[in-house]
Amino acid sequence: xxxxxxxxxxxxxxxxxxxxxxxxxxxxxxxxxxxxxxxxxxxxxxxxxxxxxxxxxxxxxxxxxxxxxxxxxxxxxxxxxxxxxxxxxxxxxxxxxxxxxxxxxxxxxxxxxxxxxxxxxxxxxxxxxxxxxxxxxxxxxxxxxxxxxxxxxxxxxxxxxxxxxxxxxxxxxxxxxxxxxxxxxxxxxxxxxxxxxxxxxxxxxxxxxxxxxxxxxxxxxxxxxxxxxxxxxxxxxxxxxxxxxxxxxxxxxxxxxxxxxxxxxxxxxxxxxxxxxxxxxxxxxxxxxxxxxxxxxxxxxxxxxxxxxxxxxxxxxxxxxxxxxxxxxxxxxxxxxxxxxxxxxxxxxxxxxxxxxxxxxxxxxxxxxxxxxxxxxxxxxxxxxxxxxxxxxxxxxxxxxxxxxxxxxxxxxxxxxxxxxxxxxxxxxxxxxxxxxxxxxxxxxxxxxxxxxxxxxxxxxxxxxxxxxxxxxxxxxxxxxxxxxxxxxxxxxxxxxxxxxxxxxxxxxxxxxxxxxxxxxxxxxxxxxxxxxxxxxxxxxxxxxxxxxxxxxxxxxxxxxxxxxx
Length: 566
Fold this sequence. Notes:
Layout: H1 2-9, H2 14-35, H3 37-40, E1 46-48, E2 54-59, E3 62-64, H4 67-70, E4 81-85, E5 90-93, E6 97-101, E7 115-119, E8 123-125, H5 134-138, H6 145-173, H7 175-194, H8 199-227, H9 230-257, H10 261-270, H11 275-278, H12 286-291, H13 295-308, H14 317-334, H15 336-344, H16 355-381, H17 389-398, H18 400-413, H19 416-434, H20 442-470, H21 473-499, H22 507-523, H23 538-542, H24 553-565
Antiparallel strand pairs: 1-8, 2-3, 2-4, 4-5, 5-6, 6-7
Helix pairs in contact: 1-14, 2-8, 2-9, 6-7, 6-8, 6-21, 7-8, 7-10, 8-9, 9-17, 9-18, 16-20, 16-21, 16-22, 18-19, 18-20, 19-20, 19-22, 20-21
């Protein structure tokens, strides 16, 4: 059958292995840019600008002659810093206002006389942790604080729009041009962000950077799946996620070494620039060439692949095409009339056609949503957990790698549902346990948070394939597309969820924990798809998990290919 021929070439041979690692190398930069804002928009401790010529400083029971010595003791919201000038004036400095003490005689921390309140003319920052960030450059504090908080949600909005635009364009003009264009733009916009010199331009360039990064990530999934065989497809798609996790670790490392935001941004952008030197050598995928009728190029590509993989160049495009067409024809003849009608009026409403399918679709969407929300809440929020923020972020990236490994093995051994549901429940329990941890045992909170991230990453990595298997051919692309839309909604909501840590440090984790637990319970009601053939009609899909289904495995493989390309 079609698949046997396909398997002969499309396993992970030398040719595909080189292409695969080359393509996912650039996926690291997507992880980098998605999380770079953690340190770009970092707010250090700050106070209202102090008057010049300060002679003495008091804070609680600490005294000093320079502000720099006070920062280590200063806690925002825990009383003002009192300063005395050479002229004898006494000021109380808080983050967003300063108070002049009237007729003060003794220099003490407590003062019960009359005061006048003034607004800040500027701000002084603690430069021990953050040398320079967007916040210190453009004073995005107090009434301008919301601007700093808007930087990440606008980036995630760019991710959402980029995924919609580039996924569609890649089907029209090919995978290769999009991979090249998006990586070149990633480089250009990434460097431009560092030289914006103005907050609004900074947000705009980050928005464009988000669009191209997201476009690359969407198209690279399709690209690697069209070059690798069914046997290794689970592994290859999972490890694109792993490359993203490496990006998170790079951010933590560079953030630790470089504390000036624009130098940090340039180094992060340059770290994946070698990709530009070889991406123009990438071939177009054989399936795309065949779909567009460019058989001569497809044939040359198949011969090159055979040569690299040390196989005889016996496979002809015509064979591959005829066999696949033949199988599709046989498959279509049985349901030709019905399929034609269905094709015309298929919409997202068909995912909610019956009560059973509506429940399934709602649960799937919920898993996509919580997967993405949990993923970004844990990654972006890891720096608020206490302890060393750089180590926390590094760990948040590092726990992902084993989670994909375990996820892959568990998916094929115990099944999709039996991996996804326990992972979500574990994530939920870990998050809810964070709340009972005493504040002074930071290490325990960090361990629980990483457990949550580990568990959610398993569910997030698995849902792509699980959705493909839960829906029939006629609506499969729509199901995966709408799922990833929910996933993008989750990522836009995530930064706002992280900001709730201002109300209570563990509130974001609590919200994710409760949702993950509820969705984990709902996942138990989904059918198991491990070892089940792919369905082609809504009736077959609805019957999943209730009655045995018999269908040719070769047709399956072919259908899976069609979906991945769609």
